[in-house]
Amino acid sequence: VKVGREVGEEVALEALRRPLTVYDLLRHTAGFTYGVFFRSPVKRLYLEAGVDRFDLPREEFLTRLASLPLRFQPGEAFEYGLSTDVLGHLLEAMAGKSLAELLNERVFSPLGMWDSGFVAQDPTRLAQPFSRDPETGRSIRLIPVEAEPPRYAGGLGGVSTAWDYLRFLEALRMGRGVLHPSLCRLMTQDHLGPLYEAGLRRGLEYTPGPGYGFGLGVAVRLGPGGLAPGSPGDFYWWGFAGTYFLVDPALELSALLFTQAPNLLSVLEPERALHSRLGQRLGLAFRTLVYGALS
């Protein structure tokens, strides 16, 4: 694995200063990126290699990813990217089971999340997106979830219901059923430290946004104030398919929003970079309404 230093429109390769760690993957400081969302020379290589595509089998995905450079040295910066996919496949290799089996054994069955997985067992219950994005007018194409996927991806392709996902959020909030309370606290505290300020300087590329650091898979509020209502220590995230959740332990609050307005209009064609900001704006409006409704 090499690191790709971006010099203008060129990519200069350099050796790793240290190996990647699971901690790097969990907090998205490993150097992996997505080809979609914003543009850079390294991101262009990811797009050209097709690693953002959903229809690659696992071995093909890993082979292509291994041929690509990291965008920065491990631990040098934060960038949300394919680290979650790599984590999922690492778990498969360690356990000798598919990610679908592991999630069912360790998360879905213990929490009674019977409608969650990688396949919609009853397609008649599947909520479909708008045929066209209300903001751009472009057609929407999401991942087909009526059959088994080419690979079980840690970063996309799951299906669930609002009720199931609320069970998961409450388990994290209360520290029971999935992780010990001490591990929940570890997961939902900031792990970026000084990398937060560096992330802010990257502008819109810093996905958690002003006032938020990043824990082990979720954005974490660092203190009072900010652009949106919330409490220090609240955590949230959003998904490509127009999903959004927030958990505020101080207020004993969990909330989620599932919309029919995806942020990425065609996961099947990431190279077209068809984005919509409607889902993100709905998430912010939802957060504001939730906190405004508290008495």
Structural class: alpha+beta
Fourth CATH level, the homologous superfamily of the largest domain = DD-peptidase/beta-lactamase superfamily
Q: What best-fitting shape do the alpha-carbon axes yield?
A: globular
Q: What's the CATH topology label of the largest domain?
A: Beta-lactamase
Total strand segments: 7
What string, H for helix and E for strand, traces the elements in order? EEHHHHHHHHEEEEEH
Major β-sheet profile = 5 strands, antiparallel
Please identify the top-level CATH class of the largest domain: Alpha Beta
**What count of helical segments does DSSP give?**
9
Keywords: Hydrolase
Protein name: Serine hydrolase
Organism: Thermus scotoductus
GO molecular function, one term: hydrolase activity
Tell me what the structure shows:
With 295 residues, this protein is of the alpha+beta class. The protein folds into two domains: 2-92, no CATH class; 114-292, Beta-lactamase (3-Layer(aba) Sandwich), CATH 3.40.710.10. The protein is 31% helix and 12% strand. The strands form two sheets. The chain has a five-stranded antiparallel beta sheet, with helices on both faces. It comes from Thermus scotoductus. Keywords: Hydrolase. GO terms for molecular function: hydrolase activity.
